[in-house]
Amino acid sequence: LKDQFDNLDKHTQWGIDFLEKYAKFVKERIEIEQNYAKQLRNLVKKYCPKRSPKDEEPRFTSCIAFFNILNELNDYAGQREVVAEEMGHRVYGELMRYSHDLKTERKMHLQEGRKAQQYLDMCWKQMDNSKKKFERECREAEKAQQSYERLDNDTNATKADVEKAKQQLNLRTHMADENKNEYAAQLQNFNGEQHKHYYIVIPQIYKQLQEMDERRTIKLSECYKGFADSERKVIPIISKCLEGMILAAKSVDEHRDSQLVIDCFKSGFEPPGDFPFEDYSQNIYRTISDGTISTPKQEGMRIDSKTTVGKAKGKLWLFGKKPKGPALEDFSHLPPEQRRKKLQQRIDELNRELQKETDQKDALIKMKDVYEKNPQMGDPGSLQPKLTETMGNMDRLRMEIHKNEAWLSEVEGKVAARSDRRHSSDINHLVTQGRESPEGSYTDDANQEVRGPPQQHAHPNEFDDEFEDDDPLPAIGHCKAIYPFDGHNEGTLAMKEGEILYIIEEDKGDGWTRARRHNGEEGYVPTSYIDVTLEKNSKGA
To answer: Which N-terminal stretch is annotated as signal sequence (predicted)?
Structure first.
């Protein structure tokens, strides 16, 4: 390749261009990894739950598994960032530095080759000039030789002309000999330099270019390997992330989730009782003038959880909704079972706080004893305010625990009483104490009682006589039964779902509305069990 300097110049330039092209490829791969990691982190951030109170933290195994998968995905995104960082430092940065060094080295070697070629060209020019000069002097000497011979043979030529021609011949011959010697010296020098150029200088430069190009190839090979190693290094960690996702998927327990749903929504209310038989034939034996309101089913009365819900709208009743009102301190706005759980949780928290305060009190007492025995360590009196504050906190916590335990006992007693009533058919009295309605419902207001249907008189006969003596109350509207009501309690009116009744007295705030059937039978029905439509002028009337 001694004569392929230009082609080697092009090849080395192509090698550097290819190196930079691969560096550009690595750079774009790094950007892809960075964008991928960024999008994964944004995705995790989008679906990760925001910080919420402890009570609202997800408890279902499917939710916990999903959040664990999000955490693993976030770690996976971090590994993609590690890949990008490793590629940028180990591959791209190294390629850019090496490319710069390679350009500098290539430029130096090519300059040396051009200088050697220029020096050889200069030697050739010197040799060529001496050759041309020698050739010219030889021609001049030949002319002088011919001129001398012509004059020497001419009989008419003077001796002076012949002598002059001879001197000119000698001069030209001498100059031709000198140029010959100069040409021979220049030729010898050029041949030596040419041999040195093609066998020593250029091969050495080409060897350096070859070594440079081979180093470039080796560097590319190392970068290829580093490119793959950057990915391979994070494979164990990525595998752990994927294993974590698989473990999260295996941790999903459908039975546990179902039990959590049961524990979360279990209200503790009684299921509705059996529907009684309604004997409509009893009206056949009544006279037209009989204005008495029938009060059937006074015997064997039992408390039904669907009889009334008062006006406690928004409660977790059998047909109700989740509470929307403000939470009460004793959790009386919750159903019994949920109230019991909340109270138990609060008692446990208060006990933990009390234990902390007790430990702090003991530590302060020990520190005070140490100060009293060693006054130089501190003033015992400085601990008294903190000790007094701790004792006050302990008293306050004990009062809170006692108060919550009393509420818990009340709830557990009511649940037990309700359980006894479920197994006994002889209890027919209405619960009037506390805030529990005849059917075990709770009101929104902690100071308000939900009473049973208004008791007109203590005896059924007096109840009937009152309505026999008075004129029937005028209807102020009508209602439609949303739910069936069996009316076991005294003074209540049984109704079927979809039945139309007349409204003769609005709800007075106790959760009961007085209604009348078409046959004249009157009684109280739960307000929340009916859809009421009042006449326009009913309130004015």
So the answer is: none
3-state helix, strand, coil in the chain (%, to 5): 65, 5, 30
Name residue 1's beta-bridge partners.
none
- pLDDT higher than threshold 70 for residue 376: yes
Q: Round to whole Å and give the CA distance between 330 and 343.
A: 8
How is residue 304 annotated by DSSP? -
CA distance 205 to 4: 12
User: What distance lies between CA 474 and its chain's CA centroid?
Assistant: 65
Q: Which fold has domain 477-534?
A: SH3 type barrels. (2.30.30)
Q: Label residue 37 by pLDDT band (50, 70, 90).
A: very high
Query: What is the CATH topology of the domain spanning 4-260?
Result: Substrate Binding Domain Of Dnak; Chain:A; Domain 2 (1.20.1270)
**R_g over Cα of the chain:** 57
- pLDDT surpasses 80 at 429: no
Q: Which residues of 414-521 form beta strands (DSSP E)?
A: 477-481, 500-505, 512-516
Helix, strand, or coil (residue 506):
coil
The token pair at 389 is 């504050």
CA distance 79 to 77: 5
Average per-residue pLDDT for the chain: 78
Residue 487 is predicted with a pLDDT of 80
Question: Where do the domains of the chain lie?
Answer: 4-260, 336-417, 477-534
Q: What is the pTM of this model?
A: 0.50
Buried b (16+ CB within 10 A) or exposed e, 399-416: ebbebbeebbebbeebbe
What is the structure's pLDDT at 538?
A: 46
